Amino acid sequence: DSVANQIAAGEVVQRPASAVKELLENSIDAGADHITLIIKDAGKTLMQVIDNGTGMSETDARMAFERHATSKIQKAEDIFAIHTKGFRGEALASIAAVAQVELKTKKEDEELGVMLRVEGSKVMEQEYCNTKRGTQLEVKNLFFNIPARRNFLKSNNVELRHIIDEFERVALAHPDIHFSFVNNGNELFDLPAAGLRQRIVNIFGSKFNEKLVPVDEETPILKLTGFICKPEFSKKTRGEQFFFANNRYIRNNYLHRAVCNAFEGLLTEGSHPSYFLFMDIDPAKIDVNIHPTKTEIKFEDERSIFTIIRTAVKHALGQYNI
Ligand code: ADP
Ligand code: MG
């Protein structure tokens, strides 16, 4: 039932950026330490991810495109408690329902790899191939079989911006992985494995070397680490604002306000702080009633988290003034 597949796919794959996110996360789950993202036309005609992770056996490769085929866990009660990014086995099935996909993959101990071509959920071709250990996934012509969705995509500038946003979030959460990103033949990023500070500098520019102030606070409820930018570097534009909970990028306006609140009196009128904050928190304290592909999350005890974050950022700001 390709219609049902296409509808389900729409939930996971809204635009090229959502497919890119899923592919990058699969490579991370596969233990890759070098991941290359290649796109054309803001992902509309091509999105390719190449990794040096574990690769897949022939059976795994075929299974990967089945809905609810995940090798990761059986039931996910709480996505913030699990270590792998994926867990529902929907991403590849969804992407393959609405695009032309080619997979090449090989495990370390196998002589030959396997190539699989899937189009609109149908396996078109399968053969053995020579390839390196790891996985290459090529996604061509997203929404080729749903013209209405294809026409609904925004301009290349807008779609590329979304992809860069996803790429930056993933790259910040995994500074120990080497990421490369090529768009229309131009290298947009080449980020060798590094620590978080160096990763920020490599993504956003060497001017960040002087801007960053470390945040490091541990309470019984949560641990907060990362960096804020010194107030004199705050911007009129929204700036770089990144929050991660248990290493997943999240968006939460209340916590954003906690950071802004700590900067109060230090910023000039109408400017915004930049920050890269990582929160480690007991997953039981995160509202589990959330869609895994969404980035908005809620906390059980938002008020105390607000206070802890504000205090941590104030400490960081105070320390750097001494
Ligand atoms: P999930 O990540 O939720 O398990 P996906 O649809 O994203 O589901 O992937 C399905 C399965 O395909 C994964 O569980 C994994 O076994 C396999 N897989 C996907 N991408 C890769 C990759 N880059 N390297 C190795 N295995 C992969
Ligand atoms: Mg996945």
Automatic annotation (TrEMBL):
Transmembrane segments: none
Keywords: DNA damage, DNA repair
GO MF terms held by the record: ATP binding; ATP hydrolysis activity; ATP-dependent DNA damage sensor activity; mismatched DNA binding
Gene Ontology annotations of biological process type: mismatch repair
GO CC field: mismatch repair complex
Function: This protein is involved in the repair of mismatches in DNA. It is required for dam-dependent methyl-directed DNA mismatch repair. May act as a 'molecular matchmaker', a protein that promotes the formation of a stable complex between two or more DNA-binding proteins in an ATP-dependent manner without itself being part of a final effector complex.
Taxonomic superkingdom: Bacteria
DNA mismatch repair protein S5 domain boundaries: 200-318
Family stated for the protein in its record: Belongs to the DNA mismatch repair MutL/HexB family.
The protein, known as: DNA mismatch repair protein MutL
Native organism: Owenweeksia hongkongensis (strain DSM 17368 / CIP 108786 / JCM 12287 / NRRL B-23963 / UST20020801)
